[in-house]
């Protein structure tokens, strides 16, 4: 439960804090939509990936804090790694802003250096969500 409930808070803060400091706050209905989406996706991730991984770790008497959090990082970034695999269709070209610099992400369907960096950044973001969720899960489980 804790692993699921922490996700919408973290995801909503991901939207609210930058908007607050950049003086373009998001409308409350968008924050609510992000909150609900993160709750649904987080609950699905915990139910389909997190709980089975924990049960396997516990079955083999390996359910330590470090292993649970490592599993959280891995399982948090796994769906993003599969869905966001950076190879696109032949002829696909994409460019955009990379921390203030205009760069090419894909050229003719092949990711550039910045394409791979963008992919790694996405994996890190979802890995952080997995880490925070696993930490919350571990804290609740430990107190039982």
Number of domains: 1
Please identify the structural class as seen in this structure. mainly alpha
Order of helices and strands: HHHEEEH
Strand order of the largest sheet: 1-2-3
Biggest beta sheet attributes? 3 strands, antiparallel
Distance between the termini: 13 Å
Radius of gyration over all CA atoms, rounded: 18 Å
What would you call the shape?
A: globular
Low-confidence parts lasting 5 or more residues at pLDDT below 50?
Answer: none
Helix content: over 70%
| Average residue pLDDT | 86
What's the total count of β strands? 3
Total number of helices = 4
Strand content: 5-15%
Q: Can you offer a commentary on this structure?
A:
- With 144 residues, this protein is mainly alpha-helical.
- It has one domain (2-84, 120-142).
- It is 70% helix and 10% strand.
- The chain has a three-stranded antiparallel beta sheet with strand order 1-2-3.
- Helix 1 packs antiparallel against helix 2, helix 1 crosses helix 4 and helix 2 (28-59) crosses helix 3.
- The longest helix is centred in the N-terminal third of the chain and has 32 residues, at 28-59.
- The radius of gyration is 18 Å and the shape is globular.
- The two termini are 13 Å apart.
- The model has no long low-confidence stretch (mean pLDDT 86).
Label this structure with key terms.
three-stranded antiparallel beta sheet, globular, 144 residues, single chain, mainly alpha, 3 strands
Blueprint of the fold:
Layout: H1 2-21, H2 28-59, H3 65-83, E1 94-98, E2 101-107, E3 110-111, H4 113-142
Antiparallel strand pairs: 1-2, 2-3
Helix pairs in contact: 1-2, 1-4, 2-3, 3-4
């Amino acid at each position: 439960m804790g692993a699921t409930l922490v996700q919408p808070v973290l995801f909503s803060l991901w939207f609210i804090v930058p908007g607050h400091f950049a003086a373009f706050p998001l409308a409350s209905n968008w924050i609510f939509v992000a909150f609900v989406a993160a709750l649904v996706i987080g609950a699905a991730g915990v139910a389909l990936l997190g709980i089975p991984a924990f049960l396997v770790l516990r079955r083999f008497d390996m359910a330590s804090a470090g292993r649970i959090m490592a599993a959280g990082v891995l399982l948090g970034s796994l769906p993003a790694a599969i869905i966001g695999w950076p190879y696109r269709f032949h002829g696909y070209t994409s460019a955009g802003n990379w921390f203030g610099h205009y760069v090419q992400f894909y050229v003719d369907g092949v990711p550039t250096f910045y394409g791979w960096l963008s992919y790694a950044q996405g994996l890190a973001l979802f890995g952080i969500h997995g880490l925070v969720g696993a930490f919350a899960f571990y804290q609740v489980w430990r107190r039982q």
